[in-house]
Amino acid sequence: MAEVYQASTTAPVNIAVVKYWGKRDPKLNLPTNSSVSVTLSQADLRTHTTAACSSSFTEDTLLLNSSPQDVSGARTQACFRELRSLRAALESADPSLPKLSPLPLRIVSENNFPTAAGLASSAAGFAALVRAIANLYELPSSPTDLSRIARQGSGSACRSLFGGYVAWQMGSKADGSDSVAVEVAPASHWPTMRALILVVSAEKKGVSSTSGMQITVGTSELFQRRAEVVVPKHMELMTKAIQEKDFETFGKVTMMESNSFHATCLDTFPPIFYLNDVSRAAIRVVEDINRKAGKIVAAYTFDAGPNAVIYFEEQNLALVAGLLKGVLGNLDGWQGRDIEVQEATDVDARAVEVLKGGVSRVILTSVGEGPIRTEESLIAANGEPLQK
Ligand SMILES: Nc1ncnc2c1ncn2[C@@H]1O[C@H](COP(=O)(O)OP(=O)(O)OP(=O)(O)O)[C@@H](O)[C@H]1O
Ligand SMILES: C[C@@](O)(CCOP(=O)(O)OP(=O)(O)O)CC(=O)O
């Protein structure tokens, strides 16, 4: 029987606090601005991927949550091609190495959260795919080197190669070699950061990030100001806020960034609406929580969909999560955490009702680590995918 080589990893989701929106080169996924994200804990949200290769396989395949995916797309192909060429270079430098680069790849992956629902599945998915194949090929590449490859799968994926607080530097070179992710600070630098996700919709979204951002680039004038003036200022403030663990600035910039990004969506022609009434109710409740506290203790942010991500620090668990548990305590997602419930006094009553009617579940998580190698495999020794 032909030998089956394999390696596995898990990879995290990241949620941006300075948003990536717009490409200067759609083929290479080169962005029009830099961005910053927080990597979320894999205890709650993760992709698990096994990469295998063998001469007994007939073609490159990808099985995602048990369903076969098309791998002929330019993005997946770019990742396969770049990783193979790094392996081929190792093989030609050391002829004793097994010749893995020409062998067909079999990738098996599982997301433990809804795919394509604005929960950054493509980020965790492509980060895991690239990391798993790099492990399989025993590449000496650093996370920054791999971020250059994962970026071509999905832009935001480049930030999921690191844990903690991560910047994607837009770079200026035409070949994209300087458009990479770097660590701003590890999770251990500011470990008290929490994220409460209000899942408003787990459905596939209407306008994908990929096409939405290109229509914005082509039609919005506001977008130009965002890329040239707003984001560079926010990048500076955000990096410093993270270094100094200054939640008030972190929170203010996070909220203003989300608002700026969604304003450019509205300024796109025809307009793109990712926020809905439930999202706006979440914004209102966060504002009321901050007003009650007399300072910024909670910060909302929204990606290309209505789900709210609310960042806060552990010391404000009762003020933020406790209050929202008072409103949404009947939903799934609060288990396993001892949270003192707070009355939603001094909070807009209508917004509370809208949240009650529109949020389907919550996910309470925290800042976490980057991809983690695992011996737990999704492919049997004979090369067959393992059914869970
Ligand atoms: N585990 C995975 N392995 C490989 N590819 C994946 C994986 N998970 C998701 N993807 C790819 O990502 C696509 C979903 O990306 P999409 O950008 O539409 O949604 P999203 O990532 O959930 O939302 P967003 O990035 O806007 O927050 C899937 O259709 C699939 O091609
Ligand atoms: C709103 C965002 O989540 C957009 C993410 O866009 P994608 O990374 O999904 O886009 P592609 O590069 O086309 O795959 C903001 C962010 O994550 O920075």
TrEMBL record:
It comes from the Eukaryota. GO terms for molecular function: ATP binding; diphosphomevalonate decarboxylase activity. Residues 195-372 form the Mvd1 C-terminal domain. It is an enzyme of class 4 (lyase). It comes from Hyaloscypha hepaticicola. GO terms for cellular component: cytosol. Residues 11-181 form the Diphosphomevalonate decarboxylase-like N-terminal domain. The lineage of its organism: Eukaryota, Fungi, Dikarya, Ascomycota, Pezizomycotina. NCBIfam families: mevDPdecarb (TIGR01240). Belongs to the diphosphomevalonate decarboxylase family. InterPro entries: GHMP_kinase_C_sf, Mev_decarb, Mev_diP_decarb, MVD-like_N, Mvd1_C, Ribosomal_Su5_D2-typ_SF, Ribsml_uS5_D2-typ_fold_subgr. Pathway: Isoprenoid biosynthesis; isopentenyl diphosphate biosynthesis via mevalonate pathway; isopentenyl diphosphate from (R)-mevalonate: step 3/3. This is Diphosphomevalonate decarboxylase. The keyword Lipid metabolism applies.
